Amino acid sequence: MASVTSTIYDFITIGNVFLLFFFLLILHYLMVLYEFRSMPPGPRLTTIPVLGNIFSLDFKADLLSDAFKSLRDKYGNVFSIKLGSHKFVMASSSEAVQEMLVKKSGDYAGRQQTYFVEKLTLGGKDIALGNYGPAWKFHRKLFITALRQYLSDVPLIESRVSTQAEKLVKFLEDQSGKPFDPADCFQHAVANVICGITFGEGYDTTDPRLNKLLKLNVDIVADTESNQTILMLDFFPFARYLPVKAYDKLLKPMYEIFDIIRVFLRQKKENFDAEEPVKDLITGLLLAKHRAELESDEVKDAFLSDDYLVNTIEDMFAAGYETTSTTMKWVIAFLVNNPKYQEDIQHQLDEVVGERNPSLEDRPNLPLIHAIIIETLRLGNVVPLAVPHFTLTDTTMCGYRVPKDTIVFADTESVHLNPKCWENPTEFNPYRHIDENGKLITNQGNFYPFGAGRRVCAGEPLAKVELFLFLSWMFQKFNFVPEEEGHPPSLKREFSGTQFPSPYKIRAVKRK
User: Fold this and answer.
1) Of the ranges 211-225, 226-240, 251-265, which is most confident?
2) What pLDDT does residue 407 have?
């Protein structure tokens, strides 16, 4: 035994250790080259064991999308890297995004179930982050059906949004032309609409529990540091064992949110009557559960456990208020910076609506309102990088191999700001969406604010209704001007899951 130990000891020399290290390094790079064979180009010799290409990213970038800019400049609009143990592809060209989201939507329909996603969604039991499969398809269909039923009742949806638009206008009047930050009032206005859809008539953020629900969601989104930290760390499986406070900072409020939703769910269950018409999302979910139980469908019944239901309800609330209220913040920021377009909107409102309140029936005759919304979504890029997709099978992109279990980002912001797709893309110009006859151009292509394909945002129709009514009411009654003359809101972007303008203040001056 001593002789074996002695032999090993004699072998461990500096030269032999160096040779072993060099051999393992060569072996590592050969494995990397094999793993990425025929995949989109990218850095290979800088791929570090365990960490991957983490040091190829730009850590000085303020926005996540900018962290990949140097790689895009070097390797083109479609490139691949390794982050932790994951293969990763960035699709930044119009052709790549179209192929990924539309032409081969089924191949790219998955979601990677990372440690944080699993914890955040109680085991992948939600729609936005859930992986593609029977449970996801069942819940998405249920959600879309419930939302369509609600939106089909035009008088009801118009009444609920207009009620909140009226309250928003009253808030603006109460500011008496003094400077204010519009973020909070926009969030409450949109959240109150979502509350009515989700929890039922009479529920809004004046309820302390729903107000807390909104505040917890707002705080999660506002914590840009924790969100960006987790977004990167989640590519590295070992990160879960590190003393990283960001995980607890986001998971704790999320579990509080679930606890609040469970209270409402329990109350709805106690008063549930399958013979009564469905008037809110929770009742619709309970009715689906009731029917599954009558059919003795154990699979569907399992998909309708409380964990699935609270995730679906939170998806509706969080996604519903955040993206829409953020879009409204961008609209005001852009139009205060471009007052001519604000005047044009008001001229059209005066001609079509006059002194009465705008309604959904006015939509065909107010194309400029729609054009403003479209241009804001294009230039503001509320979701600059679509939620990462995950390949469910071996597939291709622009002729390159993309193997199963690859994380793929659709860089829709690059498409929206591509001069080959849009003339003067960094310029805010709503008239690019109006034809020579003054009609709205509804489908120009290269436009993905809500994604596309199988994972397209289910809330798009509702968001468009809310944006149209809120903005029509506001611009009919107010001019929005800078906090100080000559100092319009900054258009600097911040990112935390969604991309929003840096906080700003404006004044709402009542029109005469």
Assistant:
1) 251-265
2) 95
> 55 vs 261, which has greater pLDDT?
261
Q: 140: which 2 tokens?
A: 């998405």
Q: Is 421 annotated as a binding residue?
A: no
Alpha helices in 295-405, H assignment, sequence order: 298-303, 306-337, 339-352, 367-380
State phi, psi for 462 to the nearest 5 degrees.
Answer: -65, -45
Provide φ and ψ at 290, rounded to 5°: -60, -45
Q: What DSSP letter does each residue of 111-127 carry, written as one string?
A: ----HHHHHHTTTT-SS
**pLDDT (0 to 100) of residue 8:** 58
Crossing angle (nearest 10°) for helices 208-222 and 224-233: 60
Q: Is 123 left (phi over 0), alpha (psi -120 to 50) or beta?
A: left
Contacts for 267 with CB less than 8 Å, ≥ 6 apart: none
Cβ(383)–Cβ(377) below 8 Å: no
**pLDDT reported for residue 440:** 94
Between CA 443 and CA 119 the distance in angstroms is 39
Q: From the CA atom positions of the chain, what is the Rg in Å?
A: 26
Q: Around Cβ 35, how many Cβ atoms within 10 Å?
A: 14
> If we measure between CA atoms, which residue out of 205, 101, 199 comes closest to residue 150?
199
* C-alpha distances out from residue 125 to 117, 262, 408, Å: 10, 15, 21
E-state strands within 166-278: none
Distance, in Å, from the CA atom of 117 to the CA atom of 130, rounded to the nearest integer, reads 9
Specify the DSSP element, H or E, that contains 482.
strand 478-482
Q: Backbone phi, then psi, for 6, in 5-degree steps?
A: -65, -40
User: Packing angle between helix 367-380 and helix 339-352, nearest 10 degrees?
Assistant: 150
284 and 278 Cβ atoms separated by less than 8 Å: yes
Task: For residue 245, report the phi and psi dihedrals to the nearest 5 degrees.
Answer: -70, -20
Q: Tens of pLDDT along 137-154?
A: 988 888 888 777 777 788
Task: Provide the pairing of β-strand 86-91 with 407-410.
Answer: parallel
CA nearest to 458, candidates 279, 315, 278: 315
Residue 349 and residue 475 in contact, taking contact as beta carbons nearer than 8 Å: yes
Q: How confident is the model at residue 11 (pLDDT cuts 50, 70, 90)?
A: low
Spatial separation of the C-alpha atoms in residues 130 and 118, rounded to whole Å: 9
355 vs 18 pLDDT, higher one: 355
Verdict on whether the full-model pTM lies above 0.85: yes
Residue reference for tokens 């939703």:
261
When pLDDT is averaged across residues 220-232 and rounded to a whole number, the result is: 83
What's the Cα-to-Cα distance from 55 to each of 26, 44, 82, 193, rounded to whole Å? 19, 12, 11, 44
- Summarize pLDDT for 73-92 with one digit per residue, the tens: 899 999 999 988 899 999 99
CATH class of 38-510: mainly alpha
Q: Mean pLDDT, to the nearest integer, of 92-119? A: 94
